[in-house]
Design goal:
Blueprint lengths: L8 H7 L6 E4 L3 E5 L9 E5 L11 H8 L2 H10 L6 E5 L15 E6 L18 H17 L1
Antiparallel strand pairs: 1-2, 2-3, 3-5, 4-5
The protein binds adenosine monophosphate (AMP) and zinc ion.
Length: 146
């Protein structure tokens, strides 16, 4: 079995100590219904290794665990004729809304008039070319040194 942690909720689900409505499982990942069901069909894709969030992923982890997203997304989409789209998202870190500190990807099917709103804001008016360039350069520099 993979690296699991005693007190982690999703490690307990992976070990079968806490029940889940599993929709897919193999050696790499487990996918099960999110208990909160933001929309019906809301699934969590979870790596079987205890990785905290994307900041813990190596490129190999990304290849291994994220490869299942499109297959799962298409299966969920097909599972209900009302579904016409999907939000695929992951919260990385407490400040980003991560509550369970074991990496998971939310797949939330969408249908017309489902009442869900994903918060967005447009701050373009606050940025000029210099500000955009500064931000882009800071990120590019981080990529070079990592
Ligand atoms: P996040 O805020 O991204 O860390 O999301 C954690 C998610 O885990 C929430 O959407 C919860 O509804 C979900 N969750 C918590 N406990 C369980 C559980 N026992 N089975 C399935 N999902 C759970
Ligand atoms: Zn865990």
């Amino acid at each position: 079995m993979s690296h699991l942690e005693a007190d982690c909720l999703f490690c307990k689900i992976i070990r079968g100590e806490i029940p889940s409505y599993t929709v897919f499982e193999n050696d790499d990942v487990k996918a099960f219904l999110d208990i909160s069901q933001v929309n019906p069909g809301h699934v969590l894709l979870v790596p079987k290794n205890h990785l905290v969030n994307f900041f813990s992923y190596s490129p190999e982890d990304a290849q291994r665990y994220l490869q299942y997203i499109p297959t799962l997304a298409k299966a969920i989409l097909k599972s209900n004729a009302r579904f016409t789209g999907m939000n695929v998202m992951t919260n990385n870190g407490q400040v980003a809304g991560q509550v369970v500190m074991h990496s998971h990807i939310h797949l939330i099917p969408r249908f017309p008039d489902d009442g869900l709103t994903i918060p967005t804001r447009n701050n373009a008016a606050k940025y000029d070319q210099a500000a955009y360039e500064q931000i882009a350069n800071d990120i590019k520099q981080s990529l070079e040194v990592s």
